[in-house]
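Researcher: I'm preparing a figure for a lab meeting and need a structural model of a single chain. I don't have an experimental structure, so a prediction will have to do for now. The sequence is pasted below. Please return the structure as tokens so I can convert it later.
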Amino acid sequence: MTAVSAIPSLDLSPAHAGGLPRRPLNVAVLGATGAVGQELLQLLEERDFPVAELRVLASPRSAGGSLNWRGESLTLRPVEEGCFDGLDLVLASAGGSVSRQWGPRAAAAGAVVIDNSSAFRMDPAVPLVVPEVNPEAAFGHQGIIANPNCTTILLTVALAPLAARRPIRRVVLSTYQSASGAGARAMEELRQLSRTVLDGGEPISEVLPHSLAFNLFLHNSPMQDNGYCEEELKMVNETRKIMDLPDLRLSATCVRVPVLRAHSESVNIEFEEPFPVAEACELLAAAPGVELIENFDANRFPMPTDVTGRDPVAVGRIRQDISEPNALELWLCGDQIRKGAALNAIQIAELLIAGPQPTSGGAA
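Model: Understood. Here is the structure written out token by token.
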């Protein structure tokens, strides 16, 4: 397993102990030109997030360009010393190496950093937060909060309301991950190579290791000694941390599929005791962040097109596992760029502004 770098010891201000100020905030989007960065900008506007000043930070090659936001042209700034001064919040989505270099510096400058990379997710000092699942964890931050892996976010939103009712013994799942998980360039490559195939040409991939046009392949993240890839182990370790189930037995197989946007997952959940299907459906239908889509008579269940550009995690085809009386099967879909990345980060920021909420005895 790849070692995770710890956050350097920081002299953080008392302002980091808890939430964000209830006033318009000075905000930076780090990685503003990427797919997730663009979604962050859109959601800040859509959700009327309280922004006093917005800085858009990007790589040196993009610096000097401009982006439009709320009818205003914003100049892209390079990430450099001093660029975080005076900020309250940094929404980072520029990759692990950038986050490791600049995240602690932004926190030391007084900002709360919500980081979308894998840089700090498994650091014990950094909360890993899905607001519908473990909102209280966000308030234990020391300047940096980690946004989980996209597939993990979608999974835990569906698992949490069930786990709150009956203990989970084991989870076995397969993911069907869209091109959006590899970024905007991978999405465009899928478009172009699909046209190439339809025109009778030979698709040659330059962004992904194999052509995704009319094809699928096992996730290409680095292979580990145990035969699992890095993406699969992220799901295992992050789910355990978010749900505070360090001994949860979980196995994942991750697959890249020719879908532009939105991931899907097939999930088998074994509980300590039988879990009636009707009860599970009722819980999920009422759960925050979940939309129940299922019509067995019409064979109609969640599809990526149901959630593209939308907030909910769509869940359906909830059924009894015929091989194990204590297990349920379900299918889910969620927009990887939205709830699987940008939306979750902004929801964490909104949570910090609202402050700790009284617990209700279940998933928040």
